Amino acid sequence: MIDLHCHLLHGIDDGAGTIEQGLELARAAVEDGITHAVATPHIHAGRYDNNADSIASVYKVFRQALEREHIPLHLDYAAEVRLSAELPVLLMQDKIPFLGEWEGSKVLLLELPHSHIPPGLDQFLRWLKQRNIRAMIAHPERNKDILRQFHKLERLLRHDCLFQVTATSLNGQFGEAAMSCAQQMLKRGVITVLATDTHHIVRRPPNLSAGRQAAEKIVGEMKSWELVWDNPLKIASCQFIDGLPPD
């Protein structure tokens, strides 16, 4: 399986606090059946002031640790980017790492505020499209506006957004409302990928397999694997050329 949203890199956001904690998460991911992952630390202006260069620096150290510890996880990096007034400037300055590509467009893992869909989002999504950037919305099933009124997802669909749902939302880890929303999205066929969004070995462990199995019960085995292998591979294949099995 391929995990496109996880917080393994140490000491730069609310994920792994130390390199040892990051390695513990990596080992758990491998045990869960994850062979490839893209580390996505937060870029959140004023809170987690990361950028492509600072993330790359931590990633280099962490990848060396993976190799030293013989942990067979093929890892690259991007970022989970919070929508903010500063974001267009950061993008124009090439300070934002992308997940990969989808149908010729760069993919930005975009985090909305948990509380609502903010005004101005439509203009920003149009601005992205003009620059050949496609937003993948992180964990939309946990956004309170969408939880209150599921039809608000249509607003994002009109802008051709991709959707990353947290795997364990399908199992109820984030409550019944988030589970119901994730299941509705799954039945409608609008989920692009499932990912772990792992932060902590106990509170938020990397449990992608459980999410895939939950998806299988709703849409069948083939469709469930598309969410944890085919579609993630389509996005991030350029990241993993050296670690992909032959066709």
Task: List key phrases describing it.
247 residues; alpha/beta; TIM Barrel; 7-stranded mixed beta sheet; 9 helices; 39% helix; 17% strand; Caps_polysacc_synth_CpsB/CapC
**Uncertain spans:** none
On the 0 to 100 scale, the average pLDDT is 95
Biggest sheet: strands, sense, closure? 7 strands, mixed
Overall geometry comes to globular
How would you classify the helix and strand content by structural class? alpha/beta
What top-tier CATH class fits best? Alpha Beta
Question: How widely separated are the two ends?
Answer: 15 Å
Gyration radius, in Å: 17 Å
Query: How much helix, percentage-wise, in residues?
Result: 25-40%
The number of strands is 10
Strand content: 15-25%
Count of helical stretches = 9
Give the CATH H-level superfamily: Metal-dependent hydrolases
Q: Give the name of the CATH architecture.
A: Alpha-Beta Barrel
CATH fold assignment: TIM Barrel
The domain tally reads 1
Instruction: Give the topology string: H per helix, E per strand.
Output: EHEEHEEHEEHEHHEHEHH
Q: How would you describe this protein?
A:
By secondary structure, the chain is of the alpha/beta class. It has a single domain, classed as Metal-dependent hydrolases (TIM Barrel), CATH 3.20.20. It has nine helices and ten strands. The chain has helices at residues 19-31, 52-68, 87-92, 121-130, 144-148, 153-157, 176-188, 208-219, 221-236; strands at 2-6, 36-39, 42-43, 74-77, 80-82, 100-102, 105-111, 133-138, 162-166, 193-195.
